[in-house]
Amino acid sequence: MVWYNLERMGRKILMRGNDAIAEAAVQAQCRFYAGYPITPQNEIPEYMSRRMPEVGGTFIQAESELAAINMVYGAAAAGVRAMTSSSSPGISLKQETISYLAGAELPAVIVNVQRGGPGLGNISGSQGDYFQSVKGGGHGDYRLIVYAPSSVQEAWDLTMTAFDKADEYRNPVMILSDGILGQMMEPFSPTAYVNPDLPEKNWKLDGCANREPRVIKSLFMGDGELEMRNILLQKKYARIERREARFVHHFSDDAECTVVAFGIVARIALASVMRLRRSGCRVGLFRPVTLSPFPRDELFMLAGRKRRFLVVEMNAGQMVEDVRLAVNGKSPVVFYGRPGGAIVTPEDIEARIREVMSVRRVRARRSLQHSGV
């Protein structure tokens, strides 16, 4: 394998989403990977099984999802950049240790290539893990940083960013992908990894022959000790919320209807928006890139009585709750979703946009009639 040499960086290559995440992790100096097979993310451990030995790293196919995430905990505690990946039911099994990672303030990257659920469900792409990812699927008042790529290019870029932000904030970070993005191939430009200026890991467990011992834990039994720990964590999450929210929007200035979607659905929705714009419809798209922290301030600023929001998700309605909280009653919020691994199409979204805009115009006419205009 030679394509990942730096002289090829910047040239477009054809790659699958799962493979792009894996190679981006290698380039970002991930040197420990532990995982367990589950479709549709199996290409990631397969890829890492080849690449980790080539760069002097460690690959382990664990005996279970629980074992894999606990191995990541140990590697992170030793100061190594560590990653695991799975798909929806497997991520459910990792939740307890994800909470431990957050409680112990250990950096790690967790990749979730979502599939349909609940239960074992199916292997189709889905977005049914939004709640689990952004609300803290494990126990306790913790938060992850959650990135939702919508292209192979973003899968590459955000994976590199995830490792940096995990180290910067000493917090686990999740890449929330899905079976469609993970399996599809498209050309993208792999960018070279640039080492950021990050704090020294003066907390890592790397031997204490010439210094005082260090302790990494999430168990705090002293009187008031755990409350103080939680207060410190909440202050960190507040910093993350102020600094790290990311979003992309298209045609927001004049949009009567703004579609809100993330990940692969936002990409599908953009095709609908572009087609409707060409026919003269004033529609736009708002795409959260970070699902946690959620870009709520930016959505609130867009809201107003002359704008409606259509939230589209491949689930039964999850992110829509955060959109309604962000809008805070300033605009109507309508939901359209397809759960259980069903894929939305541009035609589906276009039809829903036309419905929303039709209702808006009817109500606007009635309002003018009632006002005597």
Describe the protein.
There is one protein chain. By secondary structure, the protein is α/β, with parallel strands linked by helices. It has two domains: 6-244, 3-Layer(aba) Sandwich (Rossmann fold); 248-370, Rossmann fold, CATH 3.40.50.920. The chain has twelve helices and 14 strands. It has helices spanning 17-27, 43-54, 65-77, 88-103, 130-134, 152-169, 179-183, 225-244, 263-278, 296-302, 319-327, 346-370, and strands spanning 13-16, 32-35, 58-61, 82-86, 108-114, 145-147, 172-178, 185-188, 247-250, 257-260, 283-288, 290-292, 308-313, 333-337. Strands 3-2-4-5-7-6-12 form a seven-stranded mixed beta sheet, sandwiched between helices. A five-stranded mixed beta sheet has the order 9-11-10-13-14, sandwiched between helices. The chain is globular and about 70 Å long.
Task: Provide the descriptors you would attach to this structure in a database record.
about 375 residues; alpha/beta; Rossmann fold; 2 domains; 7-stranded mixed sheet; 5-stranded mixed sheet; 14 strands; globular
Write a compact overview of the structure shown:
This protein has 373 residues and is an alpha/beta fold. The protein folds into 2 domains: 6-244, Rossmann fold; 248-370, Rossmann fold (3-Layer(aba) Sandwich).
